[in-house]
Q: What sequence folds into this?
């Protein structure tokens, strides 16, 4: 039944539910196009079909009262929750399947995701009026559950991948090529654009730029992302980044310890033998020191790459934190304004 309800109010019908900007003046020749009679006809027809379901639910609730313990309203709400969560899982991740994208394409995908997410909200608002259910609350709870589930699933997949391939290079630690969720695909494309080997973060501009000075990712993208997934989505993405940073730090420290315990000790023993006893001057000390210096350079190379990846993720967290703080300030100011207006009114 819940599938049939969503089929009646499909994505094409949902587009007509988008908020429409009303101009102050409309030309007479364009009035017919502005009215969108065809879209309104299909929307009214869909509402009529859903009203039939609503009447049937009301009749069932009245006739079975006291005879059968059947809570039709809660049963439909539970089914619609499952269908809404399924639509989020099946639809959103397909916007970010491309392997190599630029900033323009990434912003387009985020905008498409935002349109789809809002369309589901408008659908649930319609169901709220027609089926007498808390549609907005259902949408908020299921969308929050979906985002948290994405972050948790990516963390679990990341841990299992690390255990499966224990000998992993530092540059591959933040690889999300096999991501299976919406947040995983989104993070993969963000990490590609902000790769330390191909981009440079400029703090005054709060963004990443390439060698030619073109912006790869900046505050404009995070503004769009926050409007798409909201504070819950930004928080889920931040928690996923924090988890990856923790795993990378642990992996980097363990790798450095293993290198120091095995290779470095052997090289130090060879250097000690080549330099001779401490009471005498070494004959070929310069060549031995050069060899040790080269070894240190090769030893630090993967460590530097790992620190660069950690810095990349931490910079992303800083911008996410900035957007969250800004969003909270705006909402608090708006709530204070509304509260003041209510007191004056």
A:
């Amino acid at each position: 039944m819940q599938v049939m309800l969503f089929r009646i109010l499909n994505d094409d019908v949902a587009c007509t539910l988008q908020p429409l900007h009303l101009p102050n003046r409309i030309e007479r020749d364009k009035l017919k196009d502005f009215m969108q009679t065809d879209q309104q006809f299909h929307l009214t027809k869909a509402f009529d079909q859903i009203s039939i379901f609503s009447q049937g639910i009301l009749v069932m609730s009245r006739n079975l009262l006291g005879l059968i313990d059947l809570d039709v309203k809660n049963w439909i709400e539970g089914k619609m929750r499952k269908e809404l969560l399924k639509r989020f899982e099946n639809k959103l991740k397909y916007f970010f399947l491309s392997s190599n994208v630029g900033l323009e394409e990434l912003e387009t995908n985020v905008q498409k995701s935002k349109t789809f997410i809002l369309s589901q909200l408008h659908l649930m608002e319609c169901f709220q009026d027609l089926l007498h259910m808390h549609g907005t609350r259902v949408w908020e709870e299921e969308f929050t559950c979906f985002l948290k589930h994405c972050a948790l699933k990516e963390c679990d997949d990341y841990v299992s991948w690390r255990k499966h391939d224990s000998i992993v290079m530092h540059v591959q630690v933040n690889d999300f090529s096999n991501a299976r969720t919406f947040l995983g695909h989104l993070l993969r494309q963000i990490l590609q654009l902000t790769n330390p080997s191909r981009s440079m973060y400029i703090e005054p501009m709060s963004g990443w730029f390439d060698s030619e000075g073109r912006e790869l990712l900046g505050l404009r993208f995070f503004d769009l992302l926050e409007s798409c997934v909201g504070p819950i989505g930004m928080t889920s993405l931040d928690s996923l980044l924090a988890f990856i940073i923790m795993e990378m730090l642990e992996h980097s420290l363990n790798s450095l310890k293993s290198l120091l315990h095995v290779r470095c000790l052997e090289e130090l023993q060879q250097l000690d033998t080549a330099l001779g006893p401490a009471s005498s001057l070494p004959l070929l000390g310069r060549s031995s020191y050069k060899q040790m210096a080269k070894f240190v350079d090769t030893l630090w190379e993967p460590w530097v790459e790992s620190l660069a990846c950690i810095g990349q993720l931490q910079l992303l967290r800083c911008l996410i934190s900035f957007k969250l703080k800004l969003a909270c300030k705006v909402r608090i100011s708006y709530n204070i304004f509304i509260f003041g207006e209510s007191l004056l009114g």
